[in-house]
Amino acid sequence: MLELKNIKKQFDGNIVLDDINLKIQKGEIVSMLGPSGSGKTTLLNIILGLTQMDSGSIIFEGEDITNTSMKDRGFNIVFQDYALFPNLNAYQNIVYGLKNNSKLINKEELDGLINFLGLEDHLKKSIYKLSGGQKQRVALARTLVTKPKILLLDEPLSALDGVIKETIKNKIKDITKKYNLTTIIVTHDPEEALTMSDKVLIINKGRISQFGTPKEVINKPKNNFIKEFILSQLQIKRNNIYSLFGECYV
């Protein structure tokens, strides 16, 4: 379990996160939603260890990792722009993280992962010859070969659309189930969060507005901000909500 206790963060005197308390169970997919500037990306970076909090603590599997370095936490992230190396082919990108620790994963596991993500026919391709969906799968593979304890995803579907988007969405859910991997996603799209996640965290002005299952968020919004944010600001269609969750508040 990952537990955040009383997390606070300011930048230049402006409160970005204020008293964040959260528990995420092993194997859960949790999506973070919120307006631009709400603090969700900062919170993701604090969990990763990329950004230091001003106060509070992070507990992972019973151990306080507040002052543990990003490297030693054993978490890993797929960035929004994939951050692939253009001078390396797909396979070289995938195994790049194994350069200094080739014993993390054996050949059978590596081949299984590549096949699971449907990349076996694309390994020798340059990054420039990959589609958006293929790049995203390469980025996922490169992260998963390091066997992260928690998988962090920053807007993983933002550059994709249509069938490719649905394919990657399903792959992320399959990965979480197959590896029992706790996964935390930052997304601007409420429909993504509601259809991908076990729990949804909605942040407004640095504070948690609601944390619950998709059905709880839709059927029992805790305040007017949740209603406006889900229905108006991010334009989820009423009929789509009905198709996903049946009879609901809206």
From TrEMBL:
Residues 2-230 form the ABC transporter domain. Keywords: ATP-binding, Nucleotide-binding, Transport. InterPro entries: AAA+_ATPase, ABC_SmlMolc_Importer, ABC_transporter-like_ATP-bd, ABC_transporter-like_CS, P-loop_NTPase. PROSITE patterns: ABC_TRANSPORTER_1, ABC_TRANSPORTER_2. It comes from the Bacteria. It holds the Pfam family ABC_tran. Signal peptide: none annotated. This is ABC transporter domain-containing protein. It comes from Clostridium oceanicum.
